[in-house]
Amino acid sequence: MSQTVRTRFAPSPTGFMHIGNLRTGLYAYLFARHSGGKFILRIEDTDRERTVEGAEEMVYRTLAAAGLDYDEGPDRDGGVGPYIQSKRADIYKKYAEELVERGGAYYCFCTKERLESLGDGKVHTYDRKCRDIPLAEAKARAAAGEKFVIRQKVPFGVVSSYTDMVYGDISVSTDDIEDGILLKSDGMPTYNFANVVDDHLMGITHVIRGAEYLSSTPKYNLIYDAFGWERPNYMHLPAIMKDATRKLSKRYGDANFEDFVAKGFLPQAIVNYVALLGWCPKSGAEKMTMDEMIAEFTPDGVSVSSSIFDEAKMRWLNGEYLKAMTEEEFLAVAEPYIRRGVRAEKYDIREIARLMQTRADVLGDIPEKIAFLDSFGEYDLGMYEHKKMKVDLEVAKKAVKVSISALEPLSDWTEEGIRAAITAAAEQAGMKSGQVMFAMRVALTGQPSTPGGAMEMAVVLGKEESMKRLAFSEGLLLGEERA
Ligand code: GLU
């Protein structure tokens, strides 16, 4: 029987969740679901100094918003917890001691001063001074209260290799590996130790994480070997770049999931976009539901080359999601943004939503796009001049007059109703309907460009407001004549 796949997402609560972290979690989720396996959340908070207040809560919020539903985690017990590293100190201590017994690690009593002197203040490699202290002596010194760390006992002259599911064969000579610290003097593990112990005890079969761990993995494998544990499979993921040379990074505040949501991106569109940063489904599809991604996600579609985070592309995809919604769905997500843009009580929110659904790629664009609705007043009459359509002030005056008389008696205040009335009136007046509509749009909005044509503007404004504006504009045009 083949083993049940278990993957994990292991964020450190050291800041917000950037797009790169999210992608790592997403791939671990997709792979687990695709394989009918389990997806586990583990919080890696052993670096207390870098732990940021509130960052853990943000992990839960982000995973929930992104739809990455984990089977086990701090709030979902699966029997191999705790799922928060700071609550596992006893476990690491026990296993560090066991590793010492097995000859895979040793007590080191070197002081900070000694270590600093090794490197002349520069980065140094530990000289392994304590490596050969007899175990009984080391234990006695530790028991007597001497301060110690536990270091990995890296074997000499061995090549440690593994096959990564994305990068292929990776080999590192153990001569290039330092006897790094596994357990710090405060009893807390380093990442180097905790990731191994946890992945083993949590039964992780596939470790999916960023490529920055690719070359440290041989070192971790030596720990698995020293314990006599089975190594997991590894899938390392190439970095996501901000541009040709710089990685996205949470330290520099790049590309935070929640910021994008606040800007009006839909979580599912962000997730969909992020999935494609480094993975190409065989179908070549771009817009995909989570279920489609799960069905198609296989490691051979994951690329070794890094991809550039392209916000414009994500905007486009988000726009596709908005267009695909039902009117009701769109109204529900757009309404807060519409209310932010205009004094909503004056308008039919539904009409504004209808107008915006095909015109905003991101919900956050809406307020600016509809601001013209509230800002109507004196405007530059030069806007009526349109050479190609052969509109000048004279034509505009006539056109606005024609619109007023066509619309005043109109009760069917819909795009179709208005279009029919204007077309008929233009014909009667011997004008092109395009000319009338152009002038009417300027007269209704006082804006050089608007998110929709004359009919749409009239519908959004409603009849009463439209008639008021047309009258005001006619006055402006006639005033010009008198001046
Ligand atoms: N806590 C590590 C990080 O945030 C996780 C690395 C891993 O997945 O093993 O980068």
UniProtKB/TrEMBL annotation:
Residues that, per the record, bind ATP: 250
GO molecular function: ATP binding; glutamate-tRNA ligase activity; tRNA binding; zinc ion binding
Binding site for Zn(2+): 108, 110, 130, 132
Extent of the signal sequence: none
Motif ('HIGH' region): 11-21
Places the protein is found: Cytoplasm
First-tier enzyme category under EC: ligase
Encoding gene (name): gltX
Protein name: Glutamate--tRNA ligase
Cofactor requirements of the protein: Zn(2+)
Record-level GO BP terms: glutamyl-tRNA aminoacylation
Reactions catalysed, as given in the entry: tRNA(Glu) + L-glutamate + ATP = L-glutamyl-tRNA(Glu) + AMP + diphosphate
Domain (Glutamyl/glutaminyl-tRNA synthetase class Ib catalytic): residue spans on this chain: 5-316
Family note: Belongs to the class-I aminoacyl-tRNA synthetase family. Glutamate--tRNA ligase type 1 subfamily.
Organism: Candidatus Limadaptatus stercoripullorum
Summary of the function given for this chain in its UniProt record: Catalyzes the attachment of glutamate to tRNA(Glu) in a two-step reaction: glutamate is first activated by ATP to form Glu-AMP and then transferred to the acceptor end of tRNA(Glu).
